[in-house]
Amino acid sequence: AAGVIQSPRHLIKEKRETATLKCYPIPRHDTVYWYQQGPGQDPQFLISFYEKMQSDKGSIPDRFSAQQFSDYHSELNMSSLELGDSALYFCASTKGGGRPSTDTQYFGPGTRLTVL
Amino acid sequence: DAKTTQPNSMESNEEEPVHLPCNHSTISGTDYIHWYRQLPSQGPEYVIHGLTSNVNNRMASLAIAEDRKSSTLILHRATLRDAAVYYCILSHGNQGGKLIFGQGTELSVKP
Fold it and tell me: In whole angstroms, what is the distance from residue A20 CA to residue B97 CA?
């Protein structure tokens, strides 16, 4: 079965540069979540989209922005990168906006961002 | 958000059952109990979820206390591939589906 695809899998950037992470949800999934996992930490929710609209927002820095496109893929744009942005970034998808009674989130393999 | 409490780590022997506890004393009536796990160097993976009744699937069983203030994830026969961090997460109807990961339980499985 098709899974969530994230690209790139690894990314190395310098401080103050920009980065764009991409997420391709499972076919027919209309809801995308972004999570950040720092070294030795638990995943933290950043932002989510349902039917191309932002549905929820967590601890996402103002330097970060994201959107969901008409084909439901999503991009996380990160500017003025800082050393502390080095982390694993996971994307997850589900169908229907995230109903806890029925919706499971399927996670991608993650993008490892290293900021030097 | 209602909070969950799990032991930092647990050990198990291969092919033995494992019971992973989770306390959620402030759970509300509309909170579902979800379990995800994260294998080393991978994204989190759904395991099981429930509301009030015990649940079984091919991966595990979920036993929910009658007062819903605690639950237990049961792996019937642990394998080496079950070594992971297990997260117990509460989600409710108006939360929009986001997962709030707390400190999970790191399960190690000995051959």
Answer: 24
- A chain contacts of residue B98, beta-carbon cutoff 8 Å: 33, 45, 48, 56, 58, 98
Of the candidates B38, B44, B95, the beta carbon closest to that of A100 is on B95
B29 pLDDT band, cuts 50/70/90, is confident
Q: What is the 3-state secondary structure (H, E, C) of A38-81?
A: CCCCCCEEEEEEECCEEEEECCCCCCEEEEECCCCCEEEEECCC
Average pLDDT over residues B48-73: 95
Contact criterion met (CB below 8 Å) for A25 and A72: yes
> In angstroms, rounded to a whole number, what is the distance separating the alpha carbons of residues B11 and B44?
20
pLDDT digits (tens, 9 = 90+) for A42-91: 999 999 999 999 999 998 999 999 999 999 999 999 999 999 999 999 99
d(CA B83, CA B107): 5
Confidence of residue A31 (pLDDT cuts 50, 70, 90): very high
Tokens in use for A35?
A: 């999570």
CB atoms within 10 A of CB B15: 12
**Nearest CB partner across the interface for B97, out of A90, A94, A110:** A94
Query: Could you tell me if residue A63 is left (phi over 0), alpha (psi between -120 and 50 degrees) or otherwise beta?
Result: alpha
